[in-house]
């Protein structure tokens, strides 16, 4: 995991929840964990990591992920066994 991916992970687990995390950085983080990313219809993207599956919608037209989606990403990572304090 590179420094940018560690920064993204920190931002995901930060409180209060940020509203300026780029979705492309989140997808890059998923790739660092060797998650399987599958394109869905429209803006849907299916992420499979450590046996846990989640479907997210890429934000559009903006590039930043909103707070609710970021909380969902955090919950997904926790369920998949990812912890910020372990990096």
Output the keywords:
single chain, three-stranded antiparallel beta sheet, two-stranded antiparallel ribbon, 5 strands, 39% helix, globular
Explained architecture:
With 87 residues, the chain is α+β, with helices and mostly antiparallel strands. It has one domain (3-86). It contains 3 helices and 5 strands. It has helices at 3-13, 23-32, 67-79, and strands spanning 21-22, 36-39, 44-49, 52-57, 64-65. The chain has a 3-stranded antiparallel sheet with strand order 2-3-4, covered by helices on one side. α1 (3-13) crosses α2. The longest helix has 13 residues, at 67-79. The chain is globular. The termini are close together. The model has no long low-confidence stretch (mean pLDDT 93).
Question: Secondary-structure map with pairings?
Answer:
Elements lengths: L2 H11 L7 E2 H10 L3 E4 L4 E6 L2 E6 L6 E2 L1 H13 L8
Antiparallel strand pairs: 1-5, 2-3, 3-4
Helix pairs in contact: 1-2
How would you describe the shape?
Answer: globular
Rg estimate, integer Å: 12 Å
The assembly state of the depicted protein chains is single chain
User: Count of DSSP helices?
Assistant: 3
* Whole-number count of domains: 1
Measured as a percent range, the helix fraction is 25-40%
Biggest β-sheet description: 3 strands, antiparallel
